[in-house]
Amino acid sequence: MTPAAKMSEEQLKEKLDALQCHFTWKMGVSSFNPSHILQKLDVEIKHTAHQNQVALLGLQAYLHQLNNQSTEALQSLRAAEERNREEEQPASTVGSLIIYGNYAWIYYLQASYQEAESCLERIQQLCPTPWDVRLIPDIQAQKGWSLLAIRARNGERARECFDVALMLEPENRSFRTGLGMALYSSCVFFRQPDIASEAIIQLERIVHEQPNNYRAKIYLAKLLEQSDREKSTGLIEECAEKSSDPEVLKSSALFWIPQSTERAFEILQRALQQDPGYHLLYQALAKCYKQQWLEAKQEDKNNILDAAIKDLQQIVQKHPDLDLTLVKLQLAEFIGERDPAQEEEMYKELQEKINTLSLRCRQALNLHWGKFFLYRKRSLDMAKAKFMDGYSISVQTNQRRECDRKLRKVAQLYQRNGDVAATEAILRFLNEADWHLPTELAALSLDDGESPSPIGE
Fold first, then answer.
1. Mean pLDDT of all residues in 263-279
2. Is the pLDDT of residue 4 over 70?
3. CA 369 to chain centre
4. At 398, which helix (H) or strand (E)?
5. Torsions phi, psi for 67 (to 5 deg)
6. How far from 57 is each of 300, 395, 417, CA to CA, in Å?
7. Picking from 101-115, 160-174, 274-288, 424-438, which range would have the lowest pLDDT averaged per residue?
8. Residue 274: CA atoms inside 13 Å, Cβ hemisphere, count?
């Protein structure tokens, strides 16, 4: 029989709230789909060699618990314990504190209060002093790495974490690596030239010290794309040739899509060999087919359409558990070239599952459906309604920006038709929607496969 807990539930919750772990760090995943983040986090855990594995496995446990997957959450923490045994002090103690903090929270959420208390006792043994200054740098670094795994919306918070860690240990190479990654995410968020310049300096230092850190190289390449195209291209080519990280290969392929779809396809195929379950690779593949079809001569378009439809259909059927909404939308658009009724039916099927889609995917659905009404049905009113629905979702993405452009196009068409009131209504809607855009939702996570707009644009 399990012994009774010594504390009241309220006392236990108070102690849990004071812990340093993923459940108390406010990770900022509320506007994202935990399953989507888990898929890309799995790639990061498998394919990166940074000193952040304990942090990432803890984040994985936290996300599994958000998905009500307690068994998987506990498995992730056991993996974190195993990885933590390889750490040196004080990082090993910090890893244990965070792991047991996560254990305590999971047991508490399962109403296993005695087990949660046992974890708290273990934490007390590890760290009798609540804030041992020797542990602060590694605590901040673990928090920073975890925030970064959610991507750009947490970039500035992660930067603050690594700044604190470096203030106490200025020569720590791992902390400097984290700072460089955080600066990259932060500059994508804010798009400010001074942050970009600082990010470039830090990333150049990282790639000099760690020539096999291909994530740092691909980030540096993206930031140099406008100012030093030759160096940027060289870095991207090096990443494409030498890296086995599917995320890095995906970024390399996205760079090549506008210039050589053949090269992009080749890189994506190698990435898929590394991890055929990484959903963002299929999104990139769909983009590649779209670009290839747009560039093709008229006599070649049918063959490309056949290949794209066949391949994307097979991908959707083979991976029912992956988040492939954007792939399905591109597939619907291709099918619509021959059968518009089937295209709209696919949009209706996705609409029935709207509550399960991420905010970005909801925007994308409205964008594609709006284009369907604009170009295939020639219905300005229906197109306007869908573009407005997409634009009303307050997350700043390429899909939202495209809804803006399409609404302005619809406004021009109304004006050409003499409907001044409809034109003014659209422009008024855009101004009001931007005015109410919440700051905390104005960032795009880098887990979506989009390339950031160049600094200064």
1. 95
2. no
3. 24
4. helix 398-416
5. -90, 10
6. 47, 27, 58
7. 424-438
8. 23
- 3-class DSSP string for 301-327: HHHHHHHHHHHHHHHHHHCCCCCCHHH
Q: Note whether 270 and 239 are within 8 A (CB).
A: no
- Please state whether the predicted TM-score (pTM) of the whole model is above 0.90: no
Q: Note the Cα 384 to chain centre separation in Å.
A: 29
Per residue in 412-429, pLDDT tens?
999 999 999 999 999 999
Please confirm whether the linkage preceding 90 is cis (ω < 30° from 0).
Answer: yes
Residue in 350, 346, 276 with CA at minimum distance from that of residue 315? 276
CA–CA dist 316, 328 (Å, integer): 7
| DSSP secondary structure code for residue 11 in this structure | H
pLDDT recorded at residue 455:
29
pLDDT tens string 379-397: 999 999 999 999 999 887 8
Angstrom distances, CA of residue 429 to CA of 182, 403, 423, 424: 35, 12, 10, 8
> Over the chain, what is the mean pLDDT?
89
Cβ-contact 203, 216 below 8 angstroms: yes
More confident site: 421 or 434: 421
50: tokens are 């940074």
* Ordered DSSP codes for 212-250: T-HHHHHHHHHHHTTT-HHHHHHHHHHHHHH---HHHHH
Query: CA nearest 247: which of 211, 272, 222, 220?
Result: 272
Which helix H or strand E contains 79, and what residues bound it?
helix 70-84
Judge whether residue 447 has pLDDT over 70.
no
